[in-house]
Each structure stands twice: as structure tokens, then as C-alpha cells.
Amino acid sequence: MKIFITGLPLEVGEDELTAVFGDFGQVKSLRIIKDRETNQSRGFGFVEMPNDDEAREAIKRMNGGDYNGNRIKVAEAQEKPNTGGGNAGGGFKRNNSRERSY
């Protein structure tokens, strides 16, 4: 099961968080999401645990808890919806009309 964690203190590292979730069972993978430019934690991450019962217990016991002074939220990760199309939006829209108004 993949678990989503938010509200993480910025100083928490992956090794520390792996140890915390390891108290509930085997951790297959863990990733704290970081800012691309600063490489600082963005305060959220994902944990993958192969045993669903252990993952549910971790969610139940940790959700809403205090972690180094921060209240964290822990829940089963939801799959990102596939919105189709490859354009993520943003930028300028080009007016393909040949008419121009000044």
C-alpha cells in the first residue's frame, strides 16, 4: 500500500521517517518530496509498505499525531487521475485567427 504523509517538519530526513514507519512493519520505499531549485523538503512524502494490514495500522496510529512539533496527516495515497492529453496547461494561448484588432 502506498501512503501519503503531509505536514512533515522540513528537517525530517528519509532515514528517520523510514525508521518511524519501520516500527509498524517493512518499508518497501519512502520518498520525501523536495523543491527542485532549493532541494528543501516540501513537507510531504510517500511511503510504500508491502503489507496492507501494517500500512493501515501505521495510518491509524500516526494520522493527526504530533511529529517534532508538527501535526501530520497520514492517509492511503490516491492514484493521480489521468486527465488525458499531454498538455499540463499554463503559458500563453495562441490566437490562430488571421483577423487582428488594434
What topology emerges from the helices and strands here?
Blueprint: E1 2-6, H1 14-22, E2 29-34, E3 41-48, H2 52-62, E4 66-67, E5 70-71, E6 73-76
Antiparallel strand pairs: 1-3, 1-6, 2-3, 4-5
Region (Disordered): 62-102
Pfam families: RRM_1
Biased composition (Gly residues): 83-92
CATH class (first level) name: Alpha Beta
Proportion of strand residues: 25-35%
Form type: globular
Using the CA coordinates, give the radius of gyration: 20 Å
Number of domain units: 1
Gross CATH architecture: 2-Layer Sandwich
In CATH, the homologous superfamily goes by the name RRM (RNA recognition motif) domain
The termini sit apart by 58 Å
CATH topology: Alpha-Beta Plaits
Order of helices and strands: EHEEHEEE
Kindly report the spatial arrangement of strands forming the biggest sheet: 2-3-1-6
Q: How many H/I helices?
A: 2
Question: What percentage of residues falls in helices of 4 or more residues?
Answer: 10-25%
Question: Count of DSSP E strands?
Answer: 6
Give the low-confidence spans: none
Q: Major sheet: size, sense and barrel closure?
A: 4 strands, antiparallel
Name the average pLDDT: 87
Protein name: RNA-binding protein
GO molecular function: RNA binding
InterPro entries: Nucleotide-bd_a/b_plait_sf, RBD_domain_sf, RRM_dom, SLIRP/GR-RBP-like
Region (Disordered): 62-102
Explain what the structure shows.
- The protein is of the alpha+beta class and about 100 residues long.
- The chain has one domain: Alpha-Beta Plaits (2-Layer Sandwich), CATH 3.30.70.
- About 20% of the residues lie in helices and about 25% in strands.
- It has two helices and six strands; from the N terminus they run E-H-E-E-H-E-E-E.
- It has a four-stranded antiparallel sheet, with helices on one face.
- Strand 2 and strand 3 form a beta hairpin.
- The chain is globular.
- The N and C termini lie far apart (about 60 Å).
